[in-house]
UniProtKB/TrEMBL annotation:
Protein name: Peptidase inhibitor I78 family protein
InterPro entries registered for this protein in UniProt: Prot_inh_I78 (IPR021719)
Native source organism of the sequence: Gemmobacter lutimaris
Gene3D superfamilies hit by this protein: Trypsin Inhibitor V, subunit A (3.30.10.10)
Pfam families, sorted: Inhibitor_I78
Length: 161
C-alpha cells in the first residue's frame, strides 16, 4: 500500500507491513525496507523452487511412456520407395543400369559372329569391343550399342556406351 501526504516530487513515503508493525520508508527506516525486499525475493525463490520440485515429483510418479514404434514399411514391387515412381522390372540390362540404347532389343545376337551383327541392319551407332581392346571413356555415348566379342569373334555381351 503506497500513501503519501507530500507533493509527487518529494513523495518518498510508503508503508510496508513488516511483522506486526508498520514502517514508513525514509532515512530512519531504510534498513527495514531492504530487509523486506530481501525477504520478498527469498520467498519468491523458495516458492518457485518448491513448485518445481512438486512438478518433478509428480512427473516422476507417472508411468513411463511406451517406446516409439515406427509403422511397418510397406514395399510395393515395381514402385521406388524413395520417389514413389514406377520402376521398370524387366530382367536383363535394366538390373544393372538403364537401357538407353535399347540393347535388350538385340540380345538375340549373342552367340553370333561379327558379320551376323553387321548384316542385322542395326541403324543405331554400334561398336565392337575385342578382348584386350582399348575402350576410351572420352568417346562414351549412352545411345551406342557395344558388342563385346570373344577371341573367336563371337558376341558374348551387349551393352550401352
Amino acid at each position: 500500500m503506497i500513501s503519501s501526504g507530500f507533493p509527487a516530487a518529494t513523495a518518498t513515503a510508503a508503508r510496508v507491513r513488516i511483522g506486526s508493525s508498520l514502517c514508513q520508508f525514509g532515512p530512519s527506516c531504510a534498513k527495514h525496507g531492504r530487509i523486506a525486499t530481501r525477504e520478498t525475493a527469498l520467498m519468491t525463490r523458495v516458492t518457485t523452487t518448491l513448485g518445481l520440485l512438486l512438478a518433478l515429483a509428480t512427473a516422476a510418479c507417472a508411468p513411463a511412456p511406451e517406446p516409439y514404434q515406427p509403422p511397418p514399411l510397406v514395399v510395393t514391387p515395381g514402385i521406388d520407395p524413395v520417389t514413389g515412381q514406377p520402376i521398370d522390372l524387366t530382367p536383363g540390362l535394366n538390373d544393372r543400369e538403364p537401357d538407353t540404347c535399347h540393347a535388350a532389343d538385340y540380345q538375340y545376337l549373342k552367340g553370333q559372329n561379327q558379320s551376323s551383327v553387321t548384316a542385322a541392319g542395326i541403324t543405331r551407332p554400334t561398336r565392337f569391343v575385342t578382348p584386350g581392346g582399348i575402350v576410351s571413356q572420352e568417346e562414351y555415348d549412352s545411345f551406342r550399342i557395344n558388342f563385346h566379342l570373344d577371341p573367336a569373334g563371337t558376341v558374348v555381351r551387349i551393352t550401352c556406351g
